[in-house]
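This section describes the prediction task in plain terms. A model, or a person checking by hand, is given the sequence of a single protein chain and must write out its three-dimensional structure as a string of tokens. No templates, partner chains or ligands are provided. The sample shown here is typical of the held-out split.
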Amino acid sequence: MPTDLQYEIDPQQLQNEGGRGLRVSESMREAYRFVRDRQMKAAQRNKDRRDLTQEHVQFLDGDPVMVFDYIHEVDKGAPKGIRKLKYRFSGPHNVERKDEESELHYFIRESSGKLRKLHVNRLRLYYPISPDLAPACGEQRFAPYRAVDENDNPQNLDIKPAPGDLVIIGCEPDDVEGTPWAVAKVTHRSREGELTVRWFGNNHGRLTGTWRPGFFQPRDDRRYYKARKDHTSHMPYTSMVSETPLNDSHVVAFGFKLNSLTDRLPQTVLNKISTSPHVAWELPATE
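The expected answer:
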């Protein structure tokens, strides 16, 4: 659309169109404004929908991370000639420090000694290969599962739950549901090892059922679990809301993912929880 129609129309042009009974310029400008307003509303709706599942990711100084790099292409078994299937993670690198001018950028120290400033979306916490971990997917060095037993306390591990990790907490969020354990996502980890989590659950208290993010309605102290909150005033249901102090000793398992289709826990995770000495729960034989 011509810029002069967007901002200001030549009076002479309007006079010429008026003399011939036309409203071309005015109609174009009104159509432009209508479409622009609709696009802005659609963009805001998309942002609100994305923010529902957006979690704050934070790294500590010295954390090992993998970097998704567009220019780093290594053939890790991808069919020859298929560029999009090439492995594009480099690392591990160490987090040097957080950018003081931006909450979303970190300085990464590469093995060559070079310091790079990268957006947090390109970073993934690095988990070293361990005999206790499930088999890695290809060459990616991310721990899909980690559990606690008598000789494996998280406080003594080099690998600890980080922001963004799903965890099994060996206690319930509050005294309402009466469940022996709960699913949550770590949203913050202090330097002292204290954890803040976003509680997950379902409205039936079914441990082998679906697990969705929790929300809290302050007006009547109601918490519920849905993919989207019922109202914009409802806040995420976190351990700060439930006033539940947590640290690594409460974590039974972490690093796993929910089933992308059913939002349920993988069977291997349920089996591990059932056999954990830290949880008084057994997997029903019919499940």
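For orientation: The chain has two domains: 55-126, 144-287.
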